[in-house]
Amino acid sequence: MKAGSFHAQYIALLRKAKLKERLKAARRAMQEHYPLTEQLWAEWLADEAPATPRPHMLQLFQLAVADYLSIPLWRQYLECATHCLLHHQWIATSELSAMEIRKQVIVL
Predict the structure, then answer these.
(1) Domain residue extents for the chain
(2) Interatomic CA distance for residues 29 and 72, integer angstroms
(3) Cβ neighbours of 53 (radius 10 Å)
(4) d(CA 84, CA 106)
């Protein structure tokens, strides 16, 4: 079995046990060494969404779409960016503007 597979199993166990801080650390560690699957990204984004301000979610979406080419992930990313823009929640630390994100999608 590959190390990435073991790490994915570890993440699943931490998620099931609801150990949020350890789960976040395990996901970050795996993301640094292995590309995450669409499912792992979707779970991570879903778990972070309730407790994380939308503008900061953009940074996580940027990692997700750079790591895994997925139409559903890109759609969620655009929805989050659009929400931030419409509700004046855009932050200066965001690397990309909403228009730049849309341009990236068009290029794909």
Answers:
(1) 1-34, 37-108
(2) 24
(3) 10
(4) 20
pLDDT at 93: 44
Q: Which of 1-10, 14-23, 83-92 has the highest mean pLDDT?
A: 14-23
pTM: 0.79
Contact between 80 and 105 under an 8 Å Cβ cutoff? The reply is no
Tell me the C-alpha to C-alpha distance, in Å, between residue 28 and each of 21, 40, 79.
11, 11, 23
Contact, 108 vs 74, CB < 8 A? yes
Whole-number CA gyration radius for the chain: 14
Q: Would you state the structure tokens that stand for residue 100, as one six-digit string?
A: 């730049």
**Separation CA 101–CA 83 (nearest Å):** 13
DSSP label of 29: H
Give me the phi and psi of 48, to 5 degrees please.
-80, -30
Taking only the tens place, the pLDDT of each residue in 28-85 is 999 999 999 999 999 999 999 998 887 788 889 999 999 989 999 999 998 888 887 7
